[in-house]
Specification:
The complex is a heterodimer. Chain A is α+β, with helices and mostly antiparallel strands. Chain A has 14 helices and 17 strands. In chain A, helix 1 runs antiparallel to helix 2. The radius of gyration of chain A is 66 Å and the shape is rod-shaped. Chain A starts with a helix and ends in a 5-residue tail after the last strand. By secondary structure, chain B is an alpha/beta fold. Chain B folds into two domains: 117 residues, Response regulator (Rossmann fold, 3-Layer(aba) Sandwich), CATH 3.40.50.2300; 95 residues, Arc Repressor Mutant, subunit A (Orthogonal Bundle), CATH 1.10.10. Chain B has eight helices and twelve strands. The longest helix of chain B has 15 residues. The chains are: A alpha+beta, B alpha/beta. Chains A and B meet through helix 10 and helix 11 of A and helix 1 of B.
Amino acid sequence: MLLSIGSFFTTILVAIVVWISVSSNRQIEREWLARSRTLNQMAFEALYASLSHGGGKEGSQQVIARLEEIGVFADVRVVRGDPLIQASAGEGSADSLDDLERRALAGDEGGAVERRDGQRVVRYVTPIRIEAECQRCHQAGVGTISGVISTQVALDEYESTLRRRRDVLLAVVAGGMLILSVVTFQVLQRLVIRPLQAIRRGAAAIAAGNLDHRLSVTTGDELETVAQEFNHMAERLQASYGQIAEEQSRILAAIEASRDAIWISDGERRVVTVNSAMERMLDQDRAQLLGRTCNDVLRLHDPSGSSICDRACAFLEDSADSGRIEGYISTERGAIWADISYGRITDADGHVVGGVHIVHDLTEHREIEQLKDEFIATVSHELRTPLNHIKGFATTLLQTDVEWDAVAQQDFMRSISQEADRLTNLVDKVLHLSRLETEGMLEDREWWQVGDIVDGALRRRRNTTAHHKMILDLEPGLPAVFVDGREIEVVLMNLIENAVQYSEPDTAITIGAGVEEGKIVFYVADQGIGIAEEQRERVFERFYRVESAKHRAPGTGLGLAICKRIVEAHNGRIWVEGALGSGSRFFFSLPLQSIA
Amino acid sequence: MRNPRVLVVDDEPVTLKYLGANLRVRGYEVLTAEDGETALEILDHSEVDLIILDIMMPGIDGFQVCETVRQTSDVPILMLSARGREHDIVLALDLGADDYLTKPFGVAEMLARVRAALRRSTPTWEQPRAPLTIANVRIDFDAHQVTVAGEPVQLTPTEYDLLAHLALNAGRVLPHRALLRAVWGPEYGDETEYLWAYIRRLRRKIEPDPSNPRYILTEPGVGYSFATSP
């Protein structure tokens, strides 16, 4: 912009200078032509006066010489051979005539600025007309032109003053223009350029990301208003960015905290963002995953092994913008069965710029489902057995073509009753176990005396233990315990039941309790068939029954599983000792809350 | 003539109790076994007329016992199981069982099937018949013998019955229901899987190429027939 202003002023300056020069030159010329004419007339009159007073040739020469002194060079030219007019002064040949002289001879006076011998001169040439007085000496008709008189004056001297004046004027004008330029420049600078630059810097700063930048323009005019608006805009931008950053960190936090693996891909299915859950699932760092395509990273396939990656990414192109798919993901650890939900990411114009996939590992879910299915299958089988027997005995009794004697009838009906009991027992245990599984920590805790719990268990199992020798081995002074008394009774009862089942009548079953290292330890010992070492852990599994060719165990297989759940819910431990053939000793410990 | 002797094999003593009681009161002689090994032992030195065999047992299961028995004998076998899926039934029949009962069952039904099985195993053709020959297959009704290309073929009573029915009606398509009723008994009619399993057994024993049968032909959705000129 400065350049334009500069050129503008320079052009004006130059134009002014040129105009002044040209017009002053013209003015000088016009003036001098006019003066020249006057001088020419004066010269003629001077010559005429001299001549008419009889000065003759010498007189004329004197006049011419005097004229020369003042710088006027006069020259009279004669035409038509008039013998009296032969005076010639100045330079120039009498024979040659130039344009001005010729024209004057024809009657047109005139002048011109010429260059002679390196000097600028003004020449004026007027015709000499014969008048009546002239006829005294000359023989020519009145009004005829007998010659021309030309005068010339050197301009330079006279010009120089004018020129000087002109130069001063130019200098003044130039100086003025310069000052004007400088002043204008300064003013512009202050009022316009600096503020504009400040705005430009401000815009650059904001574009570069420095949203704190604010302008301070105090020119008090439109630019200040612009700067204020700029500042408002910057504030709003900053606020927006702040919101966006917050929004982004919220979303990132959510993505990161998710236990499901999440990955976000761009329009070309390349991984752009992953969360820690994804890193864990694939056992790779995000650095190893970024930039790779989904296909490469996940190898999503169906049970038969064919890739379904395309189906999982089809939504990037087709009409549905989200969906779910189930499939296997190959990882280092093997194939994971997963449920993947996906959605499209679009920009403000609605173009697809990527997709987000959320992978929910169904492995655990599947395992749980499997366990549940197994449990249900086993329970169903277990429930059906007594039912089969009930059906068998009942239909037996219903036969009309045979007669059953009273003993047989009693027998069958008792069997029906027993099977019904078995069924009830099983259902109770299944429900108990189910309740323990879902409830976790037991709520009904109270202070109980150990002796009371043991008594309660023995009393309830009085019939079962009728054929065995029951021995009590309780340490004296046992502290009270803060437990769910009913449930601990169940533990003891189940252990007693097992002892009875797996040992012969008339053998001893011992129940004991003592304090050891801040815990109270119970035990139930029998003299029965014992448990092999490799089965010691397994006996506590649901439905596990020690099987041997002879002893198809009549129990449910759930008793010990229930015991374990209860003991562990009390933060205790349960285990068994003893070898095959030499009886079993079942122990369980409960931590003492405090001594009462 | 002795009373029919039945071997009941089941790992639940309670089952043995009521099955045994029901059979005994009707005059059957009953032997019991609680597992597969015991059952095979008994069969080694006793002749029985029917085996009632539970599938789910510890040790060798019912399928294995059935397979073993069939290697040397065609005594009728009635299988018991809590599993009643078609797949299990077909497997049992494929191994050679004659019939299949799912638990829980009423004893009346069991007794009916016992009767049917025993009926099948005793010859019912009272009138003498001339031997029947179709291509390579020859049935000698008097001797209760079947030969294929001159070689005698061992058939269980049920297999024999089925083959005889088809051959005596060679050229005609016998519907499923008719065959079941004729071979297994009037109480039967819907157990097409029995037929299917036994047709397979017959084809394995008679056809030169069991997968491309020429003698015993299937009419899909209708029944089976014996070719007149295979």
